[in-house]
Amino acid sequence: MPAKTDWARIRDDFPILQECAHGQPLIYFDNAATTQKPPAVLDALRRYYEHDNANVHRGLHELSTRATEAYEGARERVAEYVGAASASEIVFTRGTTESINLVAQSWGGGFLHRGDVILLTEMEHHSNLVPWQLIAARTGARLRFVPVNDDGTLALDQLDALLTGEVKLFAFTHVSNSLGTINPARELCARARAAGVLTLLDAAQSAGHMPLDVRQIGCDFLAFSGHKMCGPTGIGALYARSEILEQMPPWHGGGEMITSVTLEQSSYKKPPHRFEAGTPNIAGAIGLAAAIEYIEGIGREAIFQHDSQLTSYAMQCLADIPGMRLLGPAGERGAIVGFVRENAHPHDLTTFADQHGLALRGGHHCNQPLMRRFGLPGSTRASFYFYNTREEVERMADILRKAARFFA
Ligand code: PMP
User: Fold this and answer.
1) What number of helices (H) and strands (E) belong to the chain?
2) Fewer C-beta within 10 Å: the chain N or C terminus?
3) 14 by DSSP, 3-state: which?
4) Where are the CATH 3.90.1150.10 domain residues in the chain?
């Protein structure tokens, strides 16, 4: 039997959780927006800048070699973390948003034609919607959407009918950032593959929260952000199956991505470097590898179990607050609880919580079409991570009970 995880000791790695906000002890429940960073990640950044800092790839000196080894080592670590067949299937990006834009601009720009269809869902974050709108406008492709049921799950009974011959790619989120819905990624990828359709998984809300393996899931692309899994901001990755990545044209031009350049034209490196023009976020990649190491030290299955228990407890605590309506599925879900309450705009409710030291997020959560689907101006969201506790959930419920009286 694995040793019992000492969550209290792990929490001590995050002194920021001892801060106060508005004079109250902070409760940080905005982890879906960004997570806190442990010393292991901060130390890795500091160590790199103090001892190894140099530009990568082009240098013929010791420091540059060290920086390159650390940067390419980070790529190996990311590949292993997501179960890629090789590190060359990992492109470093600024995060999920840039990863999806890369696929839309490069793959979409290269291979989409008038009349082709990109299948998305009604629950996509704007970063898995707007890039497709942009490339659709350029290529004449169209967008189509899997509807969302009232309980916050996808209307999967309609999926096969939507996967017609014109569909070239099905891009969907693994975990909804507003509803917490966990979409059955493996099943959806299998159904898309059976229809000859490529798949892109937005793993922004799952990569740091649960075991995840691209070959087991069977997706062709996967996008995620480092900052939502203990890593620094400004770094993330795109996984793309090598057969597809090798055919994709460059999307940004500049140094590092070429093999030879004349005044008229250039030839390009193989993936992944073809997609990494300019000086990359070297420290960020090193910080991301340290975050992965830290998360793996706890174990993704243990994190998932912890988060699931905390989330069900939160749903239980919030359910009996008068006027509170919880959004999303009743069963298994990601570490996210969205809610609305009568008589209170989400911004007002979130501001009330903030006055009590409780960091929630209120608004449309970059999910405007989804909010419209539910007839809501927005919602308030509590999102958890492994350093959060049941006591914090109880304090949230107390604060929201006060809010219920305030907004009655
Ligand atoms: N997709 C989902 C599901 C998200 O929750 C987010 C972040 N809120 C993103 C994409 C975008 O991530 P980033 O801003 O790190 O690029």
Assistant:
1) 15, 17
2) N
3) coil
4) 7-30+300-406
Q: What is the CATH number of domain 42-297?
A: 3.40.640.10
CA 317 vs. chain centroid, Å, equals 27
> In CATH terms, is domain 7-30+300-406 a member of 3.40.630.30?
no
Tell me if residue 281 falls in helix, strand or coil: coil
* Phi, psi (rounded to 5 degrees) for 180: 85, -5
| Alpha carbons 225 and 98: distance in angstroms, whole number | 9
CA distance linking residue 92 with residue 74, whole number of Å: 10
Nearest ligand 1 atom, CA 227 = 15
DSSP string, 179-230: T-BB--HHHHHHHHHHTT-EEEEE-TTTTTTS---HHHHT-SEEEEEGGGGT
Distance CA 388, CA 311 (A): 10
Q: How many whole angstroms separate alpha carbon 346 and alpha carbon 110?
A: 42
**Has this prediction a pTM greater than 0.90?**
yes
Structure tokens at 304: 């998932």
Assess whether the C-beta atom of 225 lies below 6 angstroms from ligand 1: yes
Ligand 1 site, residue 124, Cβ cutoff 6 A: no
Ligand 1 binding pocket mutation candidate from 31, 93, 97 (most atoms within 8 A of CB): 97
- How confident is the prediction along the chain (408 residues), in pLDDT tens digits per residue? 557 899 999 999 999 999 999 999 999 999 999 999 999 999 999 999 999 999 998 778 999 999 999 999 999 999 999 999 999 999 999 999 999 999 999 999 999 999 999 999 999 999 999 999 999 999 999 999 999 999 999 999 999 999 999 999 999 999 999 999 999 999 999 999 999 999 999 999 999 999 999 999 999 999 999 999 999 999 999 999 999 999 999 999 999 999 999 999 999 999 999 999 999 999 999 999 999 999 999 999 999 999 999 999 999 999 989 899 999 999 899 999 999 988 889 999 999 999 999 999 999 999 999 999 999 999 999 999 999 999 999 999 999 999 989 988
Ligand 1 centre from 233 Cα, in Å? Answer: 12
List all residues 6 or more positions away from 133 whose beta carbon is below 8 Å from its beta carbon: 143
